[in-house]
Amino acid sequence: MFDYKLLSALAAVVEQGGFERAAQLLGLSQSAVSQRIKLLEARVGQPVLVRATPPAPTEVGTRLLNHVQQVRLLERDLQRQVPALEEGGMPERLRIALNADSLATWWAVAVADFCAEQRVLMELVVEDQEVGLKRMRAGEVAACVCGAERPVAGARSLPLGAMRYRALASPAFIARHFSSGVTAQALARSPAIVFGPDDSLQHRYLATLGVEGGFVHHLCPSSEGFVRMTEGGLGWGLVPEQQVSAQLARGVLRELIPDRPIDVPLYWHHWRHGGELLGLLTDHLLGAVGRWLVPLQR
């Protein structure tokens, strides 16, 4: 049988990004957390953590983390069925990986009623939509919103819809860099704004215009900061249209190539045996997101 105190220590170290914060979460000393990890490794006969900064699970550690995620959700179902098992009546905390643009636009309004009705707290891990699935693969989250369609082993993937992005810039930036008109070549020579090293959206957009290869760009790992930098004239960027409707209406931002958006598909991934709570959240999302996302093109 598993010793869930040992598994909880492993989950805390990975989720909190280190032994010190894991110890604070669990109300233990760092040495006690370290001893629990060592005892777990002794029982499974191999390392469960790569001692790096931050610590990362090994292959067997990932399997154990996946198990812990699912057990937590199944325990919540059992507590609802047997109220005497509830401890303190604290709301469940659901750990979900989510891309920053969804967080900045539709996510909060889509899940607010669900969280209130089900007494759920969210712990969100923000990742670019291109790489969010790695958090599930590592066993760190119970579900994720990302751009990958294919699920990891033991999980389901369901299409949510697509976020529509438009290439925008400030009037001052347009006057400075596109005095002779906006062309694909001029775009490639002008500073762009990119969310992070894993963000390939601008690359894909330029590819649709016939431009391949690198281009000059700022890096800005903040959805709100991305918009502020675009408004400030530091570069052009692809921004969710629902995030900047007011700026477009006021002329603070302008579309570089009219009616040339790019849609980014989003998929909801969750563990197949994640219990009733994940199933309810899945049904809720599928019924709600049509208000904010455009249908996927097949």
Automatic annotation (TrEMBL):
One Pfam short name: HTH_1
HTH lysR-type domain: residues covered: 2-58
GO molecular function, one term: DNA binding
Alphabetically ordered keywords of this record: DNA-binding, Transcription, Transcription regulation
InterPro entries linked to this entry: ArgP, ArgP_gammaproteobact, LTTR, LysR_HTH_N, LysR_subst-bd, WH-like_DNA-bd_sf, WH_DNA-bd_sf
Keyword DNA-binding set for record: yes
Function summary: Controls the transcription of genes involved in arginine and lysine metabolism.
Subunit and interaction comment: Homodimer.
Sequence similarity: Belongs to the LysR transcriptional regulatory family.
Protein known as: HTH-type transcriptional regulator ArgP
Organism: Metapseudomonas resinovorans NBRC 106553
Gene label: argP
